[in-house]
Specification:
Elements (H helix, E strand, L loop, with lengths): L1 H23 L5 H31 L12 H4 L3 H8 L9 H7 L6 H15 L6 H4 L17 H16 L13 H13 L14 H12 L2
């Protein structure tokens, strides 16, 4: 049953990636697209990760109706230092992936909004042990690139499609997934684009099955 679930999750992830790629076709080439989708997928992951962590703490303390995504930014600021200490980064409620998806269609400056959020996330780790982990984390997601479109309007149209595509991924709770969504997405994208980009996929990733086998061998006994 577990093996079947893994294949279902993997197939769903691959279908969604292909659909996003189809939407972006003609603007961002495959090799660059890889960076955009992985970066946006990571943005979704850390947003859900920190929100789930804060929500769990509040729910366990008896505040069952609490939802970090609905909290005012000014109030949330009070948790910045604690969250940076625990998670290594901080994201304000208004900067969460789900909240940006809620307004992306009506934001005429979506590219600048995303650029500001990515910078803010990276800066939240400055001066902390996690600084090196987050420095330049979103550098490959150039929201102002002409590859997305020759005008701001066209770029934002592509960014909305990218956000919607990643939002549509049925990933559920990452901790409950049987696949490594990021590793699998990367592997799939490498398979799609590495050869076309004149690159050898083997230089950039180790297939999950090989990694799993090596891990099992290393932990025997």
């Amino acid at each position: 049953m577990t093996d079947n679930r893994k294949e279902v999750e993997r197939a769903e992830l691959h279908r969604t990636i292909w659909a996003i790629a189809d939407e972006m076709r003609g603007s961002v080439d495959g090799w660059d697209f890889k960076s955009y989708i992985l970066g946006m997928l990571f943005y979704r992951y850390i947003s859900e990760n920190i929100a789930a962590y804060i929500n769990k703490g509040e729910w366990e303390s008896g505040n069952k109706d609490f939802n970090y995504a609905d909290l005012d930014d000014a109030v949330a600021e009070g948790a910045r230092d604690e969250m940076v200490g625990v998670k290594g980064f901080f994201i304000l409620p208004s900067q969460l992936f789900e909240n940006i998806c809620n307004v992306c269609d009506s934001d005429p400056n979506l590219n600048m909004t995303l650029e500001g959020i990515f910078t803010s996330i990276e800066n939240s780790a400055k001066g902390t042990p996690s600084e090196d982990d987050f420095k330049g984390l979103f550098v490959d997601i150039d929201v102002n690139s002409n590859k997305l479109g020759t005008t701001v309007v066209k770029r934002n149209e592509k960014l909305v499609k990218l956000l919607r595509g990643v939002q549509s991924m049925k990933l559920g709770d990452y901790q409950d997934n049987t696949i490594d969504a990021f590793g699998d997405a990367y592997e799939y994208l490498m398979g799609m684009y590495a050869s076309n980009a004149g690159k050898s996929g083997g230089e950039y990733y180790t297939p999950q099955e090989v990694s799993e086998l090596l891990t099992k061998l290393a932990t025997v006994g």
